């Protein structure tokens, strides 16, 4: 299965609760933390929801 690297670049302060929950669901809870996740439609949808707070490689 293909993987993608997701890094949190923005702070969840003053964001909606569902966006904070999405970051936690992706395994990101601190600035500049990186996770390697499988490239699936579900993960892509979560990334799209918080695209202004993350950067994606791969």
Structural features, described:
With 58 residues, the chain is α+β, with helices and mostly antiparallel strands. It is built from 2 helices and 3 strands; from the N terminus they run βαβαβ. The chain has helices at residues 17-25, 41-49, and strands at 3-8, 34-38, 54-57. A 3-stranded antiparallel sheet has the order 2-1-3, with no helix packed on it. The longest helix has 9 residues, at 17-25. The model has no long low-confidence stretch (mean pLDDT 97).
Features:
58 residues, alpha+beta, three-stranded antiparallel β-sheet, 3 strands, 31% helix, 26% strand
Write a brief structural summary.
Helices cover 31% and strands 26% of the residues. It has 58 residues and is α+β, with helices and mostly antiparallel strands.
- By DSSP (H or I, 4+ residues per run), the number of helices equals 2
For the record, give the distance between the C-alpha atoms at the N and C termini, rounded to a whole number: 13 Å
Overall geometry? globular
Q: Specify Rg, calculated over alpha carbons.
A: 10 Å
Which class do the helix and strand fractions yield? alpha+beta
In total, the number of strands is 3
